[in-house]
């Protein structure tokens, strides 16, 4: 099944499988894919699924344009496997088919002995103090748009936090974060828009 993987500064923020005839992308909540930033138009572009795996990209009259492999799309364009779509700060990689599971000797590899880590944040300040927020999605965002927003991405190597936007830099263990992803450790403290949250990892 065709899929789109959206990243900001190399950090995955959305992963969408294209199973509808038309999938719309834009800033407004009614879109199938919502990218909440002002450089994205309310109705920015659409992905049309034709047949089993052919996908066509169409810009919907966006203000800042839609680019495929650094070229602006001016008419309905068929996407090729591996194409990179640029919309504002987002880089969206198009993959024509889902990744196949890894195999050894023709059988799918499972690792039942590997511990499954469960991550969560516990709020330690403000009116929500004591609230536990589980991190269960591949990418979870926290914060206040325009003030300070971070994403927490679950990768094979662990959980990584990235400052996505906002004028106020988040603090990790009292230190202001830069633009690079940082791997979280158990009991790390994240301060975001005046809210203090403690990261916890459990098996």
UniProtKB/TrEMBL annotation:
SMART domains linked:
FHA (SM00240)
- Which ranges carry the FHA domain? 23-73
One Pfam assignment = FHA
Q: Which InterPro entries match?
A: Cell_Proc_Reg/RNA_Proc, FHA_dom, SMAD_FHA_dom_sf
PROSITE patterns in alphabetical order: FHA_DOMAIN
Q: Which CDD domains match?
A: FHA
Protein name as annotated: FHA domain-containing protein
* Biological source species: Ramlibacter cellulosilyticus
Q: What is the lineage of its organism?
A: Bacteria, Pseudomonadati, Pseudomonadota, Betaproteobacteria, Burkholderiales
């Amino acid at each position: 099944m065709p899929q789109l993987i959206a990243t900001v500064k190399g950090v995955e923020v959305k992963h969408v499988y294209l199973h509808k005839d038309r999938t719309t992308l834009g800033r407004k909540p009614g879109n199938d894919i919502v990218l909440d930033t002002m450089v994205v138009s309310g109705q920015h572009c659409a992905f049309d699924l034709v047949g089993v795996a052919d996908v066509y990209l169409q810009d919907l009259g966006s203000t800042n344009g839609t680019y495929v492999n650094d070229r602006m799309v001016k008419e309905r364009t068929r996407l090729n496997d591996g194409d990179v779509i640029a919309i504002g700060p987002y880089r969206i990689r198009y993959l024509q088919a889902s990744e196949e599971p890894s195999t050894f000797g023709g059988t799918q590899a499972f690792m039942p002995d590997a511990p499954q880590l469960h991550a969560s944040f516990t709020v330690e300040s403000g009116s929500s103090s004591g609230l536990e927020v589980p991190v269960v999605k591949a990418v979870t965002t926290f914060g206040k748009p325009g003030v300070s927003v971070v994403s927490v991405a679950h990768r094979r190597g662990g959980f990584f936090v990235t400052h996505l936007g906002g004028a106020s830099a988040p603090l990790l263990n009292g230190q202001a974060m830069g633009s690079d992803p940082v791997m979280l450790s158990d009991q790390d403290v994240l301060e975001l828009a005046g809210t203090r949250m403690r990261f916890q990892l459990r098996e």
